[in-house]
Amino acid sequence: MGSVPRDEPSGVSLSRVAETDQRPPGREVLHMLAPQASDCNTCVVYGDDVGQSLLDQVEDAERELRAAAEADRAGGPDGSDADLQRYFDEVIAADQKIEPRDWIPEAYRKGLVRQIAQHAHSEIIGMQPEGNWISRAPSLKRKAILLAKVQDEAGHGLYLYAAAETLGVAREELVQMLLDGRQKYSSIFNYPTLTWADIGAIGWLVDGAAIVNQVPLCRCSYGPYARAMIRICKEESFHQRQGFEILYTLANGTGAQRRMAQDAVDRWWYPSLAMFGPPDTASTHSEQSMAWKIKRFSNDDLRQRFVDMCVQQASVLGLAIPDPDLRWNAERGSYDFTDPDYDELFRVIKGNGPCNRQRMAYRHRAYDDGAWVREAAAAHAAKRRAEAA
Ligand code: 3HC
Prior knowledge:
By secondary structure, the chain is mainly α. The protein is 62% helix and 2% strand. It has helices at 26-32, 42-45, 47-50, 54-70, 81-93, 106-125, 127-131, 140-165, 171-179, 197-214, 223-251, 255-274, 286-291, 299-317, 342-352, 356-369, 371-388, and strands at residues 327-329, 334-336. The protein has a two-stranded antiparallel ribbon with strand order 1-2. Residues 1-27 and 34-52 have low confidence and may be disordered. Bound molecules: 3-hydroxybutanoyl-coenzyme A. Residues 114-115, 118-119, 122-123, 126, 153, 184, 186-187, 206-207, 210, 213-214, 274-278, 283-286, 289, 295, 299, 349 line the site of 3-hydroxybutanoyl-coenzyme A (3HC).
């Protein structure tokens, strides 16, 4: 990936501490959690180790998708505008899937392109903060795992660009919209990765938040997006485990390692909560998006679900969530917690986070450096077409 961007703002020193791998390896750690499964939300994430899981929900969604593909869709539209709309509404109401062959309202198309493209851009920009540590991973094993993970993110970007293309927009156009700032990417990737523990915190918290947000998208009404999400969620679940295991190792290591792990959790907690978007009262798209069954839950509902999941996982890690007001609310059956700073979220979204400029400068450079690859691929395709003609 060429020269690795250095994430640390000037003046901040990198504290990199070699890991001690004297504790049980990850798999054993996760199996040790199994007896707690009945009252520990960890099972919701590490499902195939300890029971009912987010992965089970992904598999349910996959079955639903197959059933929808096989379902009889008799009673199609007669071609009139009113009937096209009626048919679209009926497909959504029946929890069937809209496919690229179907007529869709322009606003549904635009909304999906916006969300899917933003999601795709997030996967691609999201390679940077973690790519920052590939050359400095503390062992060959850690380096190989991180390489695979960062490569997965590129793959997720590709599935998502492909899903967006089924809506009649070219990938090149979407990439241009990212480069010239007309489309966004997730706020979370504008924060720096200062220590190796940040790779653990990203896996545990950022990928954890991504999973909580994205599993319901496996049931999105637009077939190509839902299908892309099935595969992405299966891979994300591995990402989250690797982050949890890095933090577990550090949290049970030396005092310096433990402090490094806690410091990373302290810095990534609130930005991870902000990933879910503005509060419902300030969310511009949620209502329509939920009516179209693109989103299945509101930003606040998913944020709450994430907090409830993390509290018990943090106790297994032995790390503190940096929120003095975090406490169980028996009446609501959920944890009360402090909201992230939404003013900060909006500042970051507008381009004024700690690493926005660095992230975009790197993306521009990568795009320019890759020009010869695109030209060579286009020349090769043109030659093939000429030979076939
Ligand atoms: N970062 C940047 N922009 C955000 C944001 C965030 N965390 N949260 C909201 N926004 C933007 C919205 O895009 C919208 O701006 P726009 O109208 O200019 O497009 C505005 O803030 C208002 O927010 P809404 O709540 O109305 O927006 P949505 O209904 O689209 O909800 C969302 C936001 C929950 C992020 C939703 O779009 C979504 O679920 N997207 C798909 C998942 C996704 O993109 N995740 C990004 C992370 S990917 C990832 O984490 C990779 C993994 O490997 C770690």
